[in-house]
Amino acid sequence: MRVFIFLILFSTAAYGQDIRIITRPEAIYVQRVTGNITPMERIFFHIIVHNASQNPVTIELLRFHLSSAEGAVLSGQYSGPSLTRLFDSAIDRRRIEPTPKQTLTIGPDQRKAVSDVFIDCPADFAGDSLTVEVQYQSGGVMKSERTTSPLNRVEGFSGRLPFEGTWYVASEHSYQDPHKRFAAEAFAYDFIQIGANGKSYQREGLRNSDYYAYGKKVLATKDGKVVFVQTAIAENEPGKTNVNMPGGNVVVIDHGDNQFSYYAHLRPNTIMVREGAQVRAGDVLGEVGNSGDSLEPQLHFHVMNHASPDQADGIPAVFTMWKAQAYGRSPVVRDLAPLPRGEFVAP
Question: With a cut of 50, which residues of the chain have pLDDT below it?
């Protein structure tokens, strides 16, 4: 599921005389990643440089620091051809609107980005803040600008898995996953089911009913109040998608504390809850379908800090008492942990 806006269009900026430095998402979370030999922390962000002046500026250097009270603990610095490649890569991957490529010069009211900065580091190593510094030339004069943003270590969302049975984590939110393009989906998951044939479908997979996930029950992950329901979006044929209604049929639940769970691509007219209804964890919300920006029947799930995905930042989500290697002889029980891509999981 995708929300079709440039995820870095609306952001918090540091205003200088000539340029603005923007970090996105507005709330940069530190995600705790458990289940490894060494507990890890994961940080993800984008850096945007906006020429707010009436004249071209040329970027000489872009540097960031993750810092604690004792000083910088991790740094990255880019200049010359390496910075040019990063700017061009952000354009190629549609992270930001197109501007002239193979140049470090930014025209008036144009922007370039270093996107998808993705860092895994040992727990408690990342620090408390992100500082970005840009050195640039304007009118032959060397200048610099910087901005600092806090890193958020608040407790994220925890709840049960949104289904029964064994499911495959087809997509999550590591570096290669497309969810990272969209602010609300920064910590999203896509779930499908795999049959004994090793595929997500039987027969030729030409009908939605051929897919093992199709029609399976979607469950509330946590107690809350239903704040949005969309239930009449037609389904796609497998292999086709509806980019005009990215979520398709959707349920959004408010869990309090600015935490909203989002369930997408549901089957038309199967949603069993109404806006304003109170639900409990495990209540049936509807059925898995293939509506919206979806190529096959699947469940998209994420948690965000606003009821509307085009106004939200994603929130890290962990799940309680779930099984990894769920098709194996000895499933591994985990608690309060994120789900790895490519894993078979079950409640």
Answer: 1-16
Residue 121 falls inside a structural domain:
yes
Domain that holds residue 226: 157-345
3-class DSSP assignment, residue 344: strand
- As beta bridge partners, residue 13 has 22
Q: pLDDT tens digits for 52-97?
A: 999 999 999 999 999 987 776 888 999 999 999 999 999 998 888 9
Claim to verify: residue 75 and residue 148 sit in the same structural domain: yes
State the residue for tokens 């990215």.
246
Alpha-carbon distance of 149 to 45, in angstroms, equals: 11
**Residue 169 shares a structural domain with residue 127:** no
Into how many domains does the chain fold? 2
One domain for residues 335 and 249 = yes
* pLDDT at position 296: 98
What CA–CA distance (Å, rounded) separates 122 from 118?
14
For residues 258 and 306, the answer to whether their CB atoms sit within 8 Å is yes
DSSP helix, strand, coil percent of the chain (3-state; round to 5): 5, 45, 50
**Predicted structure pTM score:** 0.81
Cβ atoms of 1 and 298 within 8 Å: the answer is no
